[in-house]
Amino acid sequence: MNEADQGLHFPDGPRAELDDALSDLMSAAQRVLATQGRLRSLLGATQAIVEQTDLPQILRRIVEVGTELVGARYGALGVVSPDGHLEQFIHVGMPAGVAESIGHLPEGHGLLGALIQDPRPIRLEHLGCDSRSSGFPLGHPEMESFLGVPVRVRGEVFGNIYVTEGASGTFGEDDQELLIALAATAGIVIDNARLLEETRRRQRWSVAAAEITAILVAEDSVDSLGSLAERVVSLAEADLVAVVLPASPGALIVDTARGILAPDVTGRIFSAEGSVTGRAMESGQPVLADTGGNSLTDMTPPFPLGPCMAIPLIASGQSHGVLAIARASGRRAFTPSDMDMATDFAGQASLAMALAQGRTARLRLTLLEERGRIARDLHDHVIQRLFSAGLALQSLGSTMRDHTMRSRIDDTVKALDDSIGEIRTAIFALVSPRSSDHTSVRHRIIDVISEVSPLFNAPPRVKFTGPIDLLVSDELADDLVAVVREALTNVGKHAHASETLVSVAATDEDVVVDVIDDGVGVSGGHRTSGIGNLRTRAQHWGGEFTVRAREGGGTALRWKALITDEHEVAK
Q: How do beta strands 72-80 and 86-92 pair?
């Protein structure tokens, strides 16, 4: 047997070394392959979150791919609010029924709070052994291994990614590095999504501002402030948007309100001192209250609200009102960007309101001028001619011996006098009050007649006799106006009259209101409504009240009150 047939043999020592080298090479190759696989997973995860543009979808996708990337059973992403607490908590892996049974979401205590206060990675093999752990609420699944890393956006901590229960029992250094890399990519994606969303929101605010401007300056605009508030509710995702106006020195009133909380505040009057809206009104600068539990106003009973913004509505350099925007307690706070967009919107709306008010003032001035011209023509021409005709007829009647003709002429003269009185009343109605602080009694009665006119087929006529505004006190005027309103309301609802006359006469001793109609009379069925109230008011002033059926149909109502000092005895 020659040497070639005996085969190739290695000594035992070198052979063992070769086996070890081959084994190490295989292990290294497997690690390279595993690393390459995890890098591919990282690239896939990065692509998965980059493809999203909607921020809520991005946040949930980050949690999902992060959990898959490190082989975790549970994952979550907590968004940190400006005050350092958890504002949002998106979780995956936990069954829905379990999440509902636990109740409220984490608030940022224990390990989660530690990661918020010191945003550096935390990796634990046994979660419960760490002194910072605060345990789990009742019904929460048991968790051992834990890994959390911060997510930064423009150098600021946006939130944190948490994963628990690794597939191999614990999380390694490679898992931590992969999650950190994913968090870095997530920060960029979140930043881009926020910028895109802010751009879209600014576009929506701009479009809304143009629409509201068109509404405010439109000649036929109805409830323009309500339209403005409704648009802001949707744009700001608010629960309450209110237009607050000055009511009196030191007080404000909620003139217009929209949103789910609007019914509780509409029409409320409150003190400006110490309120968010009062600060905005006084300073002329927007006020942002970004912590939960703030009150929009200093109301009684208290009306607590969550985050809110108060933006002054400025025209001609002065604050004429405040646009108050609020969310319910517990909702996320408004950002400075939110306030900037709302302030720009309010500025354009204020300009449009000022233009609309200017247009209205010009139209009102034109109307007043025209009404004044008509009143002058009636006084200088029509009344003078009627008065002259009355004097001529009266002079002619005095020369007649025929009693029938003289009586007819006297009736005609009386009709002319009545017409002159009615024209003077019309002139008075055409001329606006000289003082806006104190409305005359006659103007108040005319306003009441205009108010109840829709109840009538033909508007009631009114006649004034005597110096009513000079003799009637403010307190008596209130009762006088209330009597006219009550009487006309009864006539309008129940009398079915085609003609109604209101006569108000004042002397040094008393004031008398007569309301005469040609309707169905006191037997109409429901004419007693309010009668007791009218009688009580008359007795209060030492006067009297009567209501009777007229011959030929209709009703005559008379209300009388003393205006001398003697009525004090009756009071």
A: antiparallel
Side by side, the strands of the sheet bearing 461-465 are 461-465, 500-506, 510-517, 555-562, 544-549
Whole-angstrom distance, CA of residue 9 vs CA of residue 15? 9
Cβ-count burial 179-203 (b if 16+ within 10 Å, e if not): bebbbebbbebbeebbeeeeeebee
CA-closest candidate to residue 66, choices 171, 143, 197, 157? 171
Q: Are residues 61 and 109 in the same domain?
A: yes
What's the pLDDT tens digit per position in 377-412? 666 667 777 777 877 887 787 777 788 887 888 888
What is the reported pTM?
0.49
CA distances 176 to 93, 129, 335, 367, 369, Å, are 19, 20, 32, 78, 82
Q: Which of 183, 149, 147 is nearest to 164 (CA)?
A: 147
Count the helix, strand and coil residues of the chain and give each as a percent rounded to the nearest 5.
50, 20, 30
Q: Is 395 exposed, middle or buried (0-12, 13-18, 19+ CB in 10 A)?
A: exposed
Report the domain count for the chain.
3
Whether residues 190 and 230 fall in one domain: no
Q: Do the domain assignments include residue 473?
A: yes
* Residue 70 in domain: yes
Task: Report how far Cα 84 is from the mean position of its chain's Cα atoms.
Answer: 29
Name the residue range of residue 288's domain: 226-334
CB atoms under 10 Å from CB of 309, counted, come to 29
Which SS3 state, helix, strand or coil, does residue 165 take? strand
DSSP 527-554: TTTTHHHHHHHHHHTT-EEEEEEPTTS-
Q: Is there a contact between 416 and 389 (Cβ–Cβ < 8 Å)?
A: yes
Q: Is residue 44 in a domain? A: yes
Q: What is the pLDDT of residues 291-325, one digit of tens each?
A: 533 445 445 455 567 888 888 888 766 677 888 88
- CA 489 to CA 491: how far, in whole Å? 5
